[in-house]
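Hi, here's the filled form for the chain we discussed.

Project: internal
Contact: R.S.
Residues: 143
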Amino acid sequence: MSILVALMGLCVAGLIAAGVYLELWRKAPPPWLKLGVLANLALFALALAGVMFLGVEQAMAQDVAAPAREITLGHGLALIGIGLPTGLAAIAAAMALGPVGSAALAVIAEKPDMFGRTLVYLGLAEGIAIYGLVMSILMLGKL
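And the returned structure, exactly as it came back:
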């Protein structure tokens, strides 16, 4: 289990390194980098699936009658899995709010009476983050 978690950490570090490389040199990525990133993502997905299957077994095998619960690897992975929907939904909401917000400001600059409609569109984009938060709260109740 620890080997899979370490493998996932190395995959994330590799993706960050590829992003820094592309950001600093701002040229067309070489063909080997595209294949490397795809292989890195595939390896990350396989390791994540392995950790989920092994972590669920450890989290479900705990004794219910124990008064004090210590944090095990399976419980920690379950908490990380509960936090992922909120984090990913917040990233998706940020990606949605950027273009919607800039377009809303452009519309308000030309037609100030459209302010109410633009708020509705911004609220719809922000709803993505709220859905992720609700999913995390529901999953936390099941833990």
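Let me know if anything looks off before we file it.
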